[in-house]
Amino acid sequence: MKVLISDPLAREGVEILEREPDIEVTLGKGMDEEELVRVIPEYDALIVRSSTKVTSRVIEAAEKLKVIGRAGVGVDNIDVEAATRKGIIVLNTPGANTISAAEHTIALMLALSRNIHNAAASMRKGEWNRSKFMGVEVFRKTLGIIGLGRIGAEVAKRARGLGMRVIAYDPYLSREGAEKVGVQLVSLEQLLGESDYISIHTPLTPETRGMIGRKQFEMMKDGVRIINCARGGIVDEEALYEALVSGKVAGAALDVFEKEPPDPDNPLLKLDNVLATPHLGAATREAQVNVAVEVCSQVLRALRGEMVVTAVNLPSIDPHLLKLLGPYINLAEKIGLLHGQLLEGRVSEVTINYAGELFKENTAPLTVAVEKGLLTPALQEMVNFVNAPLLARERGIRVTEMRSGEHEDYVNLISVTVKTDSKTRTIAGTVYGKRDPRIVLIDRFHVNAVPSGHILIVQNDDRPGAIGTIGTILGRNGINIADMSVGRFKPGGKAVMVINLDSEAPEEVLREISSVPGIDYVKQVRL
Predict the structure, then answer these.
(1) Burial of 126 (0-12, 13-18, 19+ CB in 10 A)
(2) 79-126 pLDDT tens trace
(3) Residues near 343 by Cβ (< 8 Å), separated by ≥ 6?
(4) Can you list the domains of the chain with their CATH numbers?
(5) What is the pLDDT at residue 316?
(6) Most confident of 219-223, 261-265, 380-384, 389-393
(7) Would you please indicate which residues are annotated as catalytic (active-site) residues?
(8) Do the strands 197-200 and 494-501 form a parallel or antiparallel pair, or are they unpaired?
(9) To the nearest whole number, what is the mean pLDDT of the chain?
(10) What is the C-alpha separation between 449 and 297, in angstroms, rounded?
(11) Strands 412-420 and 398-404: what pairing?
(12) Which of 96, 104, 192, 278 could anchor a disulfide with 290, C-beta 3.0 to 4.6 Å?
């Protein structure tokens, strides 16, 4: 079998493959799409980092390809959908840089506290000014961690070793799960109000983009310090700049930016109370070796037909079952994804009801799809069809399956109820024909919505002009409505609109819609 490694990779990983007598390894360099299309037909496996773009053209040209390995976390340079359609496993290495990222976070927190960056720059100028760089201790201070996943948990362990009190906000983690690492789970509002340091460890999603903005800075203690080694865009850079200049925020350590590399005239880079590094979270020798070893080991397992624990697309399913359940697997993931983006509070229970003759078959892939969709908005890059059940269990989420032989309105129906500490919501869907998925129920509202693209979910009073007002706002802002479904209990009662858009609605448009009298809430999701 032949393996193409098209980007630089640590030798420790490459040697894992080279030691296998039936594996032939080719080391490529700087291969563009045309070159990949030309050579890929002869390879059984492809390993890339971030430089190589594995497009649909490359995948279509592959004749023997069984697996694509990404040495790193993000798979945005791989057309995962095209690979899945062709039955090619796509895998990544989500845990290989955990320790490096956690250590970098702690390093930035300590350096920021003691003004290391400014003191070092002063020394290089030949100065000796001790009083200018007075610092603060982290001992007995409160660290608030937003996102207690793998990296957040490792940061928490190290912070506790420094004598810090650690609190965390993570709506997908049970209190028991947090207690295992000695962390108290709190609301986001409580975290913002109590923390001396705030460290961010969530993925960048539509829900987390701009989650730390002007309103959140106002809730924080005076003199708080911010550390972001997660993703640019989670913190509103303009609002952060204002908070740093005003003194509300004493300092910020940033390893990531909304635009990378940031513009040289980015005002944050001009401030003395900002410590900036060029996305170094995984930039250690150990992390690079770990990434190489993990990706090569997993690719080898895939080639041997063994279980791949870091697959980001579907694991192997019996072809007959996949043909029957394929459209419903997609629907189940979309239902979970919709739940995850509409979530209010901490998840405790998920009940999945399968109604219809089709679901007398094995429904395990459907349940995994729901779990993957539900967790993806919070954990994103680390969730796949292999680890989703484990991640749900680790977060104390109880998942229950139920089956019924038939439904009075639909041949086959998947209904998912998610219970949190503040709300219980039910979303149901079906597939029309063979490949036309629809959301048909949101809570008690019957709808007929296409689960695809940018969608607005609006709950409002059912009264004349409501639909027209929202349409006018969207039209005035150049946002086209692709489809719309409206559900209501009775005339003049409550109603729900599900509005498919051709493009994402900016935050200011959502605020304008929210301000319309009779609108209870507006939520934008991406399916």
Answers:
(1) exposed
(2) 988 887 787 889 999 888 899 999 999 999 999 999 999 999 999 999
(3) 171, 377, 418, 420
(4) 1-95+284-313 (3.40.50.720), 98-276 (3.40.50.720)
(5) 53
(6) 219-223
(7) 231, 260, 279
(8) unpaired
(9) 92
(10) 42
(11) unpaired
(12) 96
Buried b (16+ CB within 10 A) or exposed e, 21-42: eebebeebeebeeeebbebbee
Residue 157 tokens, joined: 């362990």
Token duo for residue 256? 């990531």
Q: How many CB atoms lie within 10 A of CB 364?
A: 13
Distance CA 326, CA 318 (A): 11
For 301, residues 6+ apart whose C-beta sits below 8 A from its C-beta are 307, 308
pLDDT in tens, 362-380: 788 899 999 999 999 888 6
Q: Which two three-digit tokens encode residue 66?
A: 């069984």
Q: Which token pair is 482?
A: 């692709």
- Distance set, CA 9 to CA 12, 93, 292, 295, 502 (Å): 8, 13, 6, 10, 40
Tokens matching residue 405: 């032989």
How large is the average pLDDT for residues 335-356?
Answer: 93
H or E element, residue 519? strand 519-526
Question: Pairing relation of β-strands 436-442 and 445-449?
Answer: antiparallel
Tokens at 387, concatenated: 């680890």
Q: Which of 103, 46, 108, 123 shows the shortest CA–CA distance to 77?
A: 46
Number of residues written out for the chain: 527
Single pTM value for the model: 0.73
Give the pLDDT of residue 314: 63
Angle at CA 387, nearest 5°, toward 383 and 388? 65
Please state the rounded mean pLDDT for residues 356-361: 81
Among 312-316, 435-439, 482-486, where is mean pLDDT lowest? 312-316
Contacts with 290 (C-beta within 8 Å, 6 or more apart), sequence order? 93, 96, 97
358 DSSP 8-state letter: G
Please identify which residue in the block is written with the tokens 């349409």: 471
Which residue reads 């063994």 in tokens? 306
**Six-digit token pair at 194?**
């109590």
Mean pLDDT throughout 341-352? 92
pLDDT at 382: 67
